[in-house]
Design brief:
The chain is mainly alpha-helical. It folds into two domains: about 25-150, no CATH class; about 150-303, no CATH class. Helices cover about 75% and strands about 5% of the residues. It has nine helices and two strands, in the order ααααααββααα. It has helices spanning about 5-25, 25-45, 50-80, 90-115, 125-150, 150-180, 195-215, 235-260, 275-300, and strands spanning about 185-190, 190-195. Strands 1-2 form a two-stranded antiparallel ribbon. Helix 1 (about 5-25) crosses helix 2, helix 2 packs antiparallel against helix 5 and helix 6 packs antiparallel against helix 7 (about 195-215). The radius of gyration is 20 Å and the shape is globular.
Length: about 300
């Protein structure tokens, strides 16, 4: 099969699954992103040459952490849907989320302490690998549950903006590389030779235009923890700058990891696109940062 067709088909399927999981219902979303979380952690542990027992432990812990966010967000959704009523399902979901979080904590302690009784030459490396699998991968995916709680459009806008940023950076970067006499200015050639400062600027411009479209269709107010009304121009600019910056840095961070490990792709999950981490690397930094920024802006708007 032609490489371009292969990449196009796999990208189409990927986008369709992500968008449908966000828009259909929370349970479908939870199932899809739980699988993505497990695959991403498995990929990371494989890249770090972790033993099978370590990989299984990290995947179980990641599943517990994601499920914690899923049930706590369900509890919050129930409270928002039925304010002032008895706890009901909200209480049940909250208890389940709390129990899952405690189980995650206990499991993490057990996994960390178990290194004391294993005879390995690199216990610090193993500790770091486990903690990074949770903090850098499982935790951001867990937070997607809360962006979905803010509004399906909140999470959908993040994904679309990341895709638009990548597209804009690629188009402008390739164009300037051909038009400029000495080529464009590389951003981090030792990590990612293709990325340029001109491409970064192009990504910002495309993402700003994307944010303007979000304002026009009435989505931008839903990008924040509480619906922002009226939407000001700086809301759109802030969203575009945060997403474009963190998406680029997230991509570079994953490129640095792969470069240091001597691999081209994190895996082969998506034909023509590499592994799960290759597809979601930008999201892993964008989600936590945008979650914090969204909360801060929403709190300030209530003052």
């Amino acid at each position: 099969m032609n490489e371009f067709i292969k990449r196009t088909l796999s990208a189409t399927v990927y986008a369709a699954v992500v968008v449908s999981s966000i828009l259909v219902n929370r349970y479908y979303f939870g199932a899809v992103f739980l699988i993505v979380t497990l695959l991403a952690v498995r990929e990371y542990m494989h890249l770090m040459s972790a033993q099978r027992r370590q990989t299984v432990g990290a995947m179980v812990a990641a599943a517990l952490l994601f499920a914690t966010g899923f049930f706590l967000s369900l509890a919050s959704a129930e409270v928002n849907a039925h304010p002032g009523s008895d706890e009901g399902l909200a209480g049940v979901y909250g208890v389940i989320g709390g129990v899952l979080f405690l189980v995650w904590l206990v499991l993490m302690v057990v996994l960390l302490v178990s290194e004391v009784f294993r005879h390995t030459d690199k216990p610090i490396h193993d500790w770091g690998t486990l903690l990074q699998s949770q903090w850098m991968i499982a935790f951001p995916f867990m937070l997607t549950n809360f962006l979905l709680l803010f509004s399906p459009y909140c999470l959908l806008m993040v994904f679309i903006a990341i895709w638009v940023n990548d597209t804009g950076a690629y188009i402008v970067g390739c164009t300037t590389a051909k038009l400029m006499p000495n080529g464009n200015h590389k951003m981090a050639p030792h990590i990612s030779p293709a990325k340029s400062w001109e491409g970064l600027a192009g990504g910002y411009v495309f993402t700003l235009l994307c944010a303007a479209v979000f304002v026009w269709v009435g989505w931008m107010g839903r990008a924040y923890a509480d619906y922002v009304e009226p939407v000001m121009w700086w809301h759109a600019v802030l969203f575009a700058v945060v997403v474009s910056t963190t998406a680029t840095l997230g991509d570079l961070m994953e490129s640095l990891m792969k470069r240091s490990l001597g691999v081209k792709d994190s895996g082969c999950f998506m034909p023509g696109h590499g592994g799960v981490l290759d597809r979601f690397d930008s999201l892993l930094l964008t989600v936590p940062v945008w979650f914090i920024v969204s909360l801060i802006v929403s709190l300030l708007s209530e003052l």
